[in-house]
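Worked example 3 (structure in, sequence out).
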């Protein structure tokens, strides 16, 4: 359920460093409770994650985004998702920093970059 919510929330957006820290903190808090450890048990987060054999949620999100970009790249050139991936609007834009698009978060091979500040 959590992965679905995060996929919907960050679909087409770059995951900011602040969001990545919050997601990781919530995930590790859940993993510690699942493993039966408290913060005073002197177990590092990597030890708890290795013991539970859990894939981090951020890795799942990046894999989902990478798979979607590769899927769009395989589409014919006239399909709407592929056209929208390379669409550049004309006219004036709002003041301030422009929003990140899906294309800005990936390289040419379709792989996505990790969280950035």
């Amino acid at each position: 359920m959590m992965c679905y919510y995060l996929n919907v929330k960050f679909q087409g957006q770059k995951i900011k460093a602040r969001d990545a820290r919050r997601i990781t903190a919530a995930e590790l808090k859940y993993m510690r409770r699942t493993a039966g450890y408290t913060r005073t048990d002197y177990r590092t987060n990597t030890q708890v994650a290795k013991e539970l054999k859990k894939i981090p949620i951020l890795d799942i999100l990046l894999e989902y985004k990478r798979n979607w970009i590769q899927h769009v790249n395989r589409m014919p050139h006239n399909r709407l998702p592929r056209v929208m991936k390379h669409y550049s609007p004309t006219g004036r834009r709002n003041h301030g920093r422009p929003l990140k698009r899906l294309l800005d978060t990936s390289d040419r091979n379709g792989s996505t970059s990790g969280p950035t500040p």
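Notes: The CA atoms of residues 10 and 57 lie 12 Å apart. Residues 2-86+99-105 form one domain.
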